[in-house]
């Protein structure tokens, strides 16, 4: 199963996954990643996953966003990488993923994949950000990558994220690299609906795994519930379980990882 380029998605968050020589190309060539991920001029994806085995139960995963930039963590990407490792590379259903933020345990049960993430490196803190005439109440945290979480009482589906999210994503109070932005609506004590705008993609994605985890940790803080069902823009549901006391604990994220197909790019697209 060497030298393969695959398309996968985790709850609508889509990726190109490279094995063999494709692992090396996606790891080292950000310009190629940007060409492949372009929605109009390339194959189209939110990012790429370069995977290689490093032992009988361990997988190294390098993730790049669709603009070619390397990101420390992508939880939906890890779930896709874990399924590919089990089904294509022969790793066991319980395996360890080696990422830029450390080791992540994963469990593959067919198309349903779980990953266990470390506690946030920045505990969620309340933030009040002003953009023009609007002031937003939210939370800032880092679950592998920075996240701004904006809770709203209702009307999530009607929000114009293309207008609202970019100024928040690049808000100067969030630092020079900005943050992913997720708008969160609580529909029950154990249910959330979430829409996310991701940096590096610079658009709304159908799901953001680390954003879902961040939102769940904020929602569960101080309550008796330790498990929340999160509906994302694709219509899929991701389950987050708190493995300790929220919001500063480890979590388990579970949801579908789907094989779409194998890709054979043309030399023209590759620049060969």
Task: Explain what you see.
By secondary structure, the chain is an alpha+beta fold. The chain has helices at residues 21-28, 30-37, 75-89, 161-169, 209-220, 267-270, and strands at 4-10, 13-19, 47-53, 58-65, 94-99, 102-109, 112-117, 122-131, 134-143, 145-151, 180-188, 191-198, 203-205, 227-231, 237-242, 251-256, 258-262. The protein has a 17-stranded mixed β-sheet that branches. The chain is built from six helices and 17 strands. α3 (75-89) links the parallel β4 and β5 (94-99). The protein folds into two domains: 4-114 and 258-264, Diaminopimelate Epimerase, Chain A, domain 1 (Roll); 122-248, Diaminopimelate Epimerase, Chain A, domain 1, CATH 3.10.310. It starts with a strand and ends with a helix.
In short:
This protein is α+β, with helices and mostly antiparallel strands and 272 residues long.
Outline the secondary-structure elements:
Layout: E1 4-10, E2 13-19, H1 21-28, H2 30-37, E3 47-53, E4 58-65, H3 75-89, E5 94-99, E6 102-109, E7 112-117, E8 122-131, E9 134-143, E10 145-151, H4 161-169, E11 180-188, E12 191-198, E13 203-205, H5 209-220, E14 227-231, E15 237-242, E16 251-256, E17 258-262, H6 267-270
Parallel strand pairs: 2-3, 4-5, 10-11, 12-14
Antiparallel strand pairs: 1-2, 1-17, 3-4, 5-6, 6-7, 7-16, 8-9, 9-10, 11-12, 12-13, 14-15, 15-16
List keywords for this structure.
272 residues; alpha+beta; Diaminopimelate Epimerase, Chain A, domain 1; 2 domains; 17-stranded mixed beta sheet; 21% helix
């Amino acid at each position: 199963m060497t030298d393969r380029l695959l398309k996968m998605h985790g709850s609508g968050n889509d990726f190109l996954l490279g094995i063999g020589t494709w692992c090396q190309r996606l790891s080292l060539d950000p310009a190629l990643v940007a060409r492949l991920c372009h929605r109009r001029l390339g194959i189209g994806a939110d990012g790429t996953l370069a995977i290689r085995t490093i032992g009988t139960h361990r997988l190294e995963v390098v993730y790049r966003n669709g603009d070619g930039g390397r990101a420390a963590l992508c939880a939906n990407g890890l779930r896709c990488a874990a399924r590919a490792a089990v089904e294509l590379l022969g790793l066991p259903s319980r395996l360890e993923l080696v990422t830029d933020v450390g080791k992540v345990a994963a469990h593959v049960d067919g198309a349903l994949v779980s990953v266990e993430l470390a506690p946030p490196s920045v505990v969620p803190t309340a933030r009040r950000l002003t953009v023009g005439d609007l002031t937003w109440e939210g939370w800032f945290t880092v679950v592998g990558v920075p996240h701004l979480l904006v809770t709203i009482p209702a009307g999530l589906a009607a929000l114009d994220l293309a207008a609202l999210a970019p100024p928040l994503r690049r808000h100067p109070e969030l630092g020079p690299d900005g943050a992913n932005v997720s708008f969160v609506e609580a529909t029950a004590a154990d249910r959330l609906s979430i829409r996310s705008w991701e940096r590096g993609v610079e658009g709304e994605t159908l799901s953001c795994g680390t954003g879902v985890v961040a939102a769940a940790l904020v929602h569960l803080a101080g309550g008796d519930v330790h498990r929340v069902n999160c509906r994302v823009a694709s219509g899929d549901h991701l389950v987050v379980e708190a493995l300790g006391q929220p919001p500063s604990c480890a979590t388990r994220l579970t949801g579908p990882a789907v094989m779409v197909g194998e890709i054979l790019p043309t030399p023209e697209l590759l620049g060969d």
